[in-house]
Amino acid sequence: MKIERKYMAHFLNATFGGDTGTASYVRLGKDLEEYSPELSANVEKKQNILGQTSVTIDSYQKQGEVSPYYAEKGDALFEKLQAIIDGDLVLDNLKTDIVEVKLWENGTSDAFPAVKEECYIEVSSYGGDTTGYQIPFNVHYTGIKTKGTFNPTTKAFTASE
Known about the structure:
Strand content: 35-45%
Number of helices: 1
Radius of gyration: 18 Å
Mean pLDDT: 92
Distance between the termini: 31 Å
């Protein structure tokens, strides 16, 4: 049985870049027709004198593009993206985390299997057309992951022991 796309959820933490306090997760996808993190594997191929090819994949440089992203007044993620634009923020001010939640798995008490990964946010442009103020951005994953569960109702991540 095929799994519908809506059951692979991505929640981005809008509390980042030196902000303190409880994580504030916002689900990506309201205006997106697609969100597919690209793995961009580092692949090395070598052919020996026997004509045999060996393949080595030693790392991934994962990133996802969120475009379009329409700004909505009062939305925590919009406020953070606007702060990045207004303050030309760089380095650790762009650091946050994203949680990928497998909503097709049978969760107990609304706790679904999830993986939280550290990431950095890169605003690629802002403005847009007559459909609304847009702030498309890229999510650059670091590979630092924590397995656990996520409750979509309370938007709380709990790390596995």
